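Throughout our pipeline, every protein is held as a single compact record rather than as scattered files. Nothing more is needed to write down the fold, since each code stands for a local backbone conformation. The record that follows is passed on verbatim for readers who wish to inspect the format.
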Amino acid sequence: MSQQAPPPPYGYPHPPVPQGPAGLPSGPPPPAPGYGGYAPPPPRKSQVGKIVAIVVGAVAVLFVGLLVLGALAGPRQVSTQQIEQQITEQYQQQYGYDASQVRCPSSLDAEVGATTTCSGPIDGTPTTLLVKVTSVQDGTVNFDITPQ
């Protein structure tokens, strides 16, 4: 009967290295105890800074996009000054009349069918004008000016 070596104690991480010639171990050196042969993983770096930067960047891009979209959508109203200027220019160019004293009490919504009424002397004659939006396209509001 041959005697066998007792089994290694429980939890022993490595089998014994076989002996080579002259009692030297053969093969690679055994791994460091406790690591199973692998280097420990590098410590995890916090991702909070990256996440915050991504969220802030996304919010900034969204905000700028909304501003650009709002600017491209065109005006929502035509101001009283713009209406009065158009009336003055139109009456001067088409009829040679002075309409610089015509005043409009409110701005004009940039919606087809929206109206406002302007009044004042045109070439000395008191006049009331109906201003009505006929179309809105590419940021341009077109309107008719009709004497009442």
Notes: Residues 88 and 140 are 19 Å apart (CA to CA). Residues 46-74 form one domain. The mean pLDDT is 76. The first helix runs from residue 48 to 72.
